[in-house]
Amino acid sequence: MVLSHQRECTRLILLFLLLVCFCHPVSGQIVYSVSEEVNPGSVVGNLAKDLNLNIQELESRLFQLVYGSKKRYFEVNLKTGILYVNERIDREALCPSSLACAVELEAIVNLPLNLYRIEINILDINDNSPLFPVKQQYLNISESTFPGVRFALLSASDPDVGTNSVKTYKLSPNDHFSVDVQSGGDQSVSAELVLQKALDREKQPVIHLVLTAVDGGKPPKSGTSELTINVLDNNDNTPAFSSSVYKVRVPENVPHGASVITLNATDLDEGVNGEIVYFFNKHGQEKILDTFQINPRTGEITVKGDIDFEEKKAYEIRVQAQDKGQSPMATHCKVLVEVIDVNDNAPDIAVTSLLNNVKEDAKPGTAIALITVSDRDSGDNGKVNCLIQGDAPFKLQMSYRNYYSLILAGPLDRESVSRYNVTITATDDGKPPLSSTSVIHVNVVDVNDNAPRFPEPVLEVYLKENSPPGTLIFTASAFDPDLNENSEVTYSLRETSVQGVPVSTIINVNSVSGEIYAIQTFDYEEVKTLQFQLLAIDAGMPRQSSNATVNVFILDQNDNSPGILPPYSPEGTSNTENIPLSADIGYFVAKIRAIDADSGYNAWLSYHVLEPKRTDIFSIRSNTGEIRTKRRLTENDLQSHPLVILVTDNGTPALSATVSIDVVVVESSSEMQSEFRHLPKKEDSFSDLNLYLLIAIVSVSVIFLISLLSLIVVKCHRRDDSFSGYSPPMITTHPDGSWSYSKTTQQYDVCFSSDTLKSDVVVFNSPFPPSSGDLININGNDTFKRNQEMSNNMEVRSSLTDF
């Protein structure tokens, strides 16, 4: 009861010292002390106060402790900031055979990130008594042994350290022996039995003693072992070693059978009394017997098992030499084997992940993981350098000794790299150096940092005129490289007006699929192009958007028949032309003029004689509509010749119109009443004067045409949208009266002025419908814009009015 009361008082005193004993953090480190075996819940210190942290911010700043072991001996109350004992602490189990025992923790707070190293020293209490390996020890001592001879005794062990370990030995009172206590350090105390007075076997053949081992605790604890001494008869000389203690150094990982040391003991006796046998003291050296062995004849100690510096740094071997006398005498010595460390352990990397998923907009300096590196070797072999392999936006920041933080060092982009495998390499300073690696997987979480993108900023689509309402014009598609809702794109129209009408009344877009529909029917002759803005918006927060310009080109369809121009009227109206009976071959009868509201090939007209089917009197030029005679008229020919002229466009399917002309043959020119004659009657003869006049007219006409074209070019150059890099056209006149020109590929404007040139039909021999990038608008004096190569031969066929 007294010992129990004293032990409880000691614990209370140590707890009181613990409450008042703490160290302020120096270089990011706080040191506390706590006794082993204190009750769970015992206060270690006010961690929030010592770290100068606001108690109310502990939870919001994600305060946490990182342990180096699996057991959580300590915890922190986040409401009060108090560090307390969480589990029972047994110093002997936590730090066996170690003088100093400490638990190292890492405290982490975020926003901003701060790391603190906490070291808690575990104080030993005297909770273990010394213990001998055996309850009884037997010694055989000859009666002729001289006083002063020493005999080795088995040592007691005590798991406690420091003052609580074995400090001294006591021997029960007797007349012949005393005990000599030898100290080899804080943890190494041995006892030797010293003969003080000569023995007499005849008087006392067996002596019983009690050996007591006492530790230095308060109150002290003790353990006992009984000594039984058998007094033997005569063996005059005891074997003797050259030294009582031998020290050797052996590198770890030496091969089995390697020699450690050869001991030599001498005995002055002769014969069997002088023959010596070597052996290990078995009691208390069971593990040593697994590691070393001794040759009983030569005294050579060799390696039997594995020697590992990381498991045991030194060995103390007790060797006994005994002669072979009838009453054998023995002596002993100690062999201290120091193990030399070699670099046989690669560094160990322990990773505590703080953030497995990192947003791609995370700021540099964000902590990703806590890394602890260690090496079981010592000296330079245990010094470790840590680095990141490869190119990654991360860096290592040393917090304390072998503690590192993996932090973000640069910007992240999930669309470029969605996952990083960060390889950490730890290398020691040994020769040769050893290294190990650990891979930390960091997933980059998407944020809405990308706007949807259309394939092109300008989308060009084509729509046939007269298409019914609801016709699908085009399906737009915008790509967003983000994920999930950040990449869900919806489409809409930017509200604008087209020719004064809101675009939403003309065009509709499906917000999900991007399909663009025409709400109404379009007529090429009224509207040739539409332009509107298409918006693409994602569903992220905040939302991102982009737009594209959509140009809709209305494609002409052959939906207009040719129209007959005055003075002639379509079929059903009487049209009369008179020609003289004397008309020669090629006599000009009439010229049919027609127009077509369509464009391109749909407006390219041709003229044919529909009725009569086969006439040998009249012919019509298919491209100009001029009706001429094919032969001379005779009196046998009919006086009246009804003709039906068919005007056909070049569309698919072709549309046509007809006109009826009644050609009346009269006797003389004076009887001709037609006022629509376009060409005079051809003269029978052609004089030299007429030839000169014709040459002059042609020359003046060519000069006029060149001047006219030059004026057109200058006028177009002076416009704001004038073309660049213009090459003048080459004009070619064809035998049938038509003309054509060829040009090089350039962007150009062609300007037609009604004051200068009157045109019925303009046809470009170019690919149709117009390719991407063309803007076509034919409306009086409108402009043709094209930016792609057209065919080198562009034929313009037109029926020209008189200049």
What does this structure look like?
There is one protein chain. This protein is mainly beta and 803 residues long. It has 7 domains: 2-123, Cadherins (Immunoglobulin-like), CATH 2.60.40.60; 128-234, Immunoglobulin-like; 236-340, Cadherins (Immunoglobulin-like), CATH 2.60.40; 348-445, Immunoglobulin-like (Sandwich); 458-555, Cadherins (Immunoglobulin-like, Sandwich); 563-684, Cadherins (Immunoglobulin-like); 689-796, no CATH class. It is built from 5 helices and 54 strands. A 4-stranded mixed β-sheet has the order 1-7-6-3. 25% of the residues are buried.
Write the layout of secondary structure elements.
Elements: H1 2-20, E1 29-35, E2 43-46, H2 47-50, E3 64-67, E4 74-77, E5 82-85, H3 91-94, E6 102-109, E7 114-123, E8 136-142, E9 150-152, E10 166-171, E11 177-183, E12 189-195, E13 206-215, E14 222-232, E15 240-241, E16 245-251, E17 259-262, E18 265-266, E19 276-280, H4 286-291, E20 292-294, E21 300-303, E22 314-323, E23 330-340, E24 348-353, E25 357-359, E26 367-374, E27 384-389, E28 394-400, E29 403-408, E30 419-428, E31 435-445, E32 458-464, E33 472-475, E34 489-493, E35 497-498, E36 501-502, E37 507-509, E38 515-518, E39 529-538, E40 545-555, E41 563-564, E42 576-580, E43 588-591, E44 594-595, E45 606-611, E46 618-620, E47 626-629, E48 640-648, E49 656-666, H5 688-718, E50 730-733, E51 739-742, E52 748-750, E53 784-786, E54 793-796
Parallel strand pairs: 1-7, 8-14, 16-23, 25-31, 32-40, 42-49
Antiparallel strand pairs: 2-5, 3-6, 4-5, 6-7, 9-12, 10-13, 11-12, 13-14, 15-18, 17-21, 19-22, 20-21, 22-23, 24-26, 26-29, 27-30, 28-29, 30-31, 33-38, 34-39, 35-36, 37-38, 39-40, 41-44, 43-47, 45-48, 46-47, 48-49, 50-51, 51-54, 52-53
